[in-house]
Amino acid sequence: MPLMKTTAEVQAVKDETTEHLICTVWRPVLTQVVSAFRHGDFGLRVGVPGVERPSMETAEHIRDAIAAYGATLTELPEESWESSVCMWQLTHWDALIDLWTEEEGRSDLVLSVRIDEEPEGYSFKIHMVYVP
User: Is 64:57 a contact under the CB 8 Å cutoff?
Assistant: First the structure.
């Protein structure tokens, strides 16, 4: 079920009991990650500031999951932020980003990311792309 649409800035919420929308400041970073995947850069060779490059094994899994799904990944539209969620895990946030495809719009694929708070901002670690 989609969360409430909002045009206001969304803050990172440390609440381990409820899912929340993706923090506004994280969105450009996550958009860059999905854009890299869309262009075949599953290992983030070009690099995205604040994002740890996935291992070769993780990059291959992401590539294979998207290929097996059988649809063409698109850039993240603004609508993705209406249903993508994160949840505080006492030391970090786990986020699920809804991915979109040319063939179906919002797909069943999600990007799983760990987000840590650092003194200088946030760091991101890509876990996987999968169908929950």
Answer: no
With respect to residue 88, please indicate whether it lies within any of the assigned structural domains.
Answer: yes
- Please list the alpha-helical segments (H only) found in the chain: 27-38, 56-69
Task: In whole angstroms, give the CA distance from residue 116 to residue 56.
Answer: 22
- Count of domains for the chain: 1
Longest dimension (CA), the chain: 41
Segments in the chain below pLDDT 70: 1-7
Assigned domain for 12 exists:
no
State the pTM of this model: 0.91
Residue 113: helix, strand or coil by DSSP? strand
Cα separation, 115 vs 121, whole angstroms: 10
